[in-house]
Amino acid sequence: MNPPTPPDGRLTAFGNQLIEVHLWLREELARLRDNPAAGTRELRAHCLAFCAAVTRHHTGEDRTAFPALAGQFPELRPVLEELARDHEQVAAIMRDLGDVLDRPGGDPERVRTEIDSLAALLESHFVYEEKRIVTALNALSAPGWRASVPAFLEKED
C-alpha cells in the first residue's frame, strides 16, 4: 500500500512517512497489548502479523534507508549503526515471544512480559530514530523512492 498523497499531489517527505509508519506500528502494538489473555491461537496470529510488519520495516531500513542516509549524511553512520543494533534486539524479543506462544498452554504472564519488553524497546527505538534521522530523511534525495515507495515506508492494509 502506498502512503496517502496530499491534496497537492506530492508525496509527503520520507521522514514524515516514517513517522506515519511508526504511528501505525504503535497502534498495532497497542492492540496486541490490549488483549494478551486472548486465545493462544488468536494472539499468535496477531503477533505473527505484527512481527512480520516490524521485520519488513526494519529490514527495509537496514537494506534501503540506512545505506542511502549513510551515503548522503556520513555523520549519521554511528546513529544508523545503533539503530541497526536495536533492530537485532527487537528481532530477538520477537523470537522469544514467538517461542512462548508456541508452547502448549502458553504462560500468560510470560506473554505479557515479552510484549511489555517489546513495547518498551520499540517505543524507545522509534523516539530515538525520529529525533535523529527524520530531518535527514526529509532532505534525502532518492528519486527512485518517489516512483516506487520502499517497503519500510508502507503500512499493511
Description:
This protein has 157 residues and is mostly helical. The chain has a single domain (15-142), classed as Four Helix Bundle (Hemerythrin (Met), subunit A), CATH 1.20.120.520. 75% of the residues lie in helices and 0% in strands. The protein is built from five helices and no strands. Helix 1 packs antiparallel against helix 2 (40-72), helix 1 packs antiparallel against helix 4 and helix 3 (77-102) packs antiparallel against helix 4. The radius of gyration is 17 Å and the shape is elongated.
Layout of helices and strands:
Elements lengths: L13 H21 L5 H33 L4 H26 L5 H32 L3 H5 L10
Helix pairs in contact: 1-2, 1-4, 2-3, 3-4
Query: Distance between termini?
Result: 7 Å
Q: What about the largest sheet? A: none
The overall pLDDT, averaged over residues, is 84
Cα gyration radius (Å):
17 Å
Order of helices and strands: HHHHH
Extended strand count: 0
CATH architecture: Up-down Bundle
**Uncertain stretches of 5 or more adjacent residues:** 1-11
